[in-house]
Write a structure and sequence with these properties.
Blueprint: H1 7-31, H2 35-61, H3 73-81, H4 87-109, H5 116-169, H6 173-176
Helix pairs in contact: 1-2, 2-5, 3-5, 4-5
């Protein structure tokens, strides 16, 4: 009989969300012509895919099984606001996602009896996410100088959607234990 590790479903959610993010950002690279944006998007995309790999390794290390799911942060968020249709919307969604992930990972680290492999992966990811937040914030600030009201409108739209999605996205501590 196979015993399913209770952490595996949460970690698979993280894994799939990271992979989804990396693939979306990789597609945005193809739409971009600004060299600095291409560099940042390519780096960020590669890191998100690497994060999916790290979660896969962690799942295996704790005795779980990687499992595909269409349930990701991004699909839940898209259900609340629709799929992003521009580079601006993708990067606002990315910023929203990265903030949520840092908060979620910090909460997950507080779970009593957390497996050391999970804790190590969470800490590693939180550090990387800070860099993601920094470059996207700087890009959004640059865009605000040129497209102020449009950027504010998209940020507000995604902040509201994030509040709606948060209730469905936040993973209860009981599932994390």
């Amino acid at each position: 009989m196979t015993v399913i590790n209770p952490d595996a479903s949460v970690l698979n959610f993280y894994r799939e969300s990271q992979l989804h993010s990396g693939l979306i950002l990789g597609q945005i690279v193809r739409r971009s012509s600004d060299a600095r944006l291409i560099l940042n998007l390519t780096r960020h995309s590669a890191e998100e895919v690497m994060h999916a790999q790290l979660w896969t390794e962690t799942i295996i290390a704790i005795g779980g099984r990687p499992a595909s799911t269409r349930d990701t942060y991004q699909t839940r968020h898209a259900a609340a606001v629709g799929a992003p249709s521009s580079v601006l919307e993708v990067l606002v969604l990315t910023q929203t996602f990265e903030r949520w992930i840092v908060r979620q990972f910090a909460l997950h680290l507080q779970v009593a009896g957390i497996h050391p492999a999970i804790a190590a992966t969470l800490r590693r990811m939180i550090e990387k996410k800070r860099g993601h937040l920094t470059w996207v914030k700087a890009w959004l600030e640059e865009q605000s100088k040129v497209r102020g009201s449009e950027v504010r409108e998209v940020v507000s739209k995604y902040a509201l959607a994030d509040q709606r999605a948060a209730a469905r996205v936040s993973l209860p501590a009981a599932r994390l234990a």
